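Issue: ligand-bound run for N-carbamoyl-L-aspartate - logging full I/O for the record.

Environment: standard queue, default settings, no custom constraints.

Inputs:
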Amino acid sequence: MTTDTVQYDPLAEPTAHRVAMLNRDDRLFHIILAQQFDCELIETMCRLAEMIRNIAESKQGNRFLRSLLSHKRAMLYFIQPSTRTFLSFAASCQILGVPYNEVRNPSTSSEIKGETEEDTVHVLSQYFDLIIMRHPVEGFAERMAYKLNSMPRPIPILNGGSGKDQHPTQAMLDMYTLLRNFEPRLADRAHPTLSGNPFAGKTIAFVGDLKRGRTVRSLSYLLAQYAGMRLIFVSPPELGMGEDIIEYLDRHGVHHEKSEDLNEVIRSCDAVYMTRLQDEYDQAGESSKIDYYKYSLTVEMVEATKDSLVIMHPLPRRQELDVRLDTDRRAKYWAQVRNGMWMRAAMIAYIFNVDATIIDHYKTSYTA
Ligand code: NCD
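Outputs:
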């Protein structure tokens, strides 16, 4: 007779419980899931990013920022291709004076000698004070966060992209970009302000591979914190938004609809979020049969849109976003890249509890 031992899986716990395990003393400890953020925290981070951005303009401000966390060390453990997210985190560490190191290729690490990835992360946790992790396997960063919680030296893990599942720091920089456009008072130097609900009455389209695009998945969780907006999912039928996200939006009362015709919906949009085909997740080249570029955004299509349309893309892009749009005033994807650096600096500052110091410094130096 065999005895079945049921293995405990923390990822099977209800989301509220997982979020509680990722937090500590009512603050974020690890940043793994977009569901860790409510409106208040999203706005706190956006204001903090805005303050860091302004402080960093002067040499003196830079010196202040760099003094904040020079006693902390970060590991950029990026086991999946990345240019901008890696460099964005590297830049945000530099802004806050955090020395960092990197592991990008497991074939040059002891994993080649048979060390498990888990052991590698445990070893890293002894050298560093923060692990920023990009990993192809969904849930790996989250599992490691729970493991580290019970280790002698628990340190925070920040998710820089977990397989097809989530990319919370990208989603936060996307929120920051949307809010900077929908609420111009956020860029007010003296008082970076966010009040009311800047998303009420707004229409936002997500376009492309919504099934495997982790950025749109995480962004959906964040947008669902706000009421009164309309989401339109434009994708090939095979690459539609996952049922788990649809259910989450339904539970949060978010209006959402599907379309296969970007040209038709674009006129009513306040923002359009383009994404590339995530064919690295194909099992057997199945997406080569899809007419993906039927869902492209062209210069001609934006002629009849709102003047204030916000065009976004997490990048890298392929042909889904016309390069002739690059210099259009509505193209915000370059701003997104820069916003990411400030937002990630804000998130690292928050994790290490220096957000209040930044706000105090800001008040004394920038407010009349
Ligand atoms: C995205 C990612 O890695 O998920 N890129 C990024 O972080 N800026 C989007 C993508 O690769 O398509």
